[in-house]
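User: Predict the complex.
Assistant: Input components as received:
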Amino acid sequence: NAGVTQTPKFQVLKTGQSMTLQCAQDMNHNSMYWYRQDPGMGLRLIYYSASEGTTDKGEVPNGYNVSRLNKREFSLRLESAAPSQTSVYFCASRRGPEYEQYFGPGTRLTVT
Amino acid sequence: AQTVTQSQPEMSVQEAETVTLSCTYDTSESDYYLFWYKQPPSRQMILVIRQEAYKQQNATENRFSVNFQKAAKSFSLKISDSQLGDAAMYFCAYRSDTGTASKLTFGTGTRLQVTL
């Protein structure tokens, strides 16, 4: 099992450009999450998907959209990137309420 | 809303010694989970240990153990016999036991240095 995979690992965007961060898990997990990590701060939840077909806002959703494409895949889209979105983005998945979250390796995004 | 506080931005320990990382949290819930995650320079988030709030016994995983004080809302991590590979950022996290997609709330982290 590859676990949780994220693409790309690194990305540099100019202000106003758009891009989609991809996340996939092969553990048949129901719930998936997107977090961002900024210097001096813990991870903050952007969006999550409790199950296939549902998505909900987390703590810092502004400027982002998500799609739960199927049970395996959960993408995060930046429609018009801003320098404030420079961060490391983590995807995570979880089998169910009794279980812990498994994290992907992260994507380092820089917006200039 | 729940909050998690890690008041030690950095800690240092000598190899083979013991170190304790502090974490406090604020919640009005009675059932929840607490976690410690390790983040080495590779950025990968690695679960170190978990504690269910309904369990009175403190969780242990090899050299890692916790001191869970529910009334004080305190959840510290003790690392015994510290090794160079323990050097990393450590994050304390809270998860509610309610809801189908219980979300993690993280503290700001403690950077642990291990010296020879």
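Chain B touches chain A through 21 residues (CB under 8 Å).
Let me know if you want any component modeled separately.
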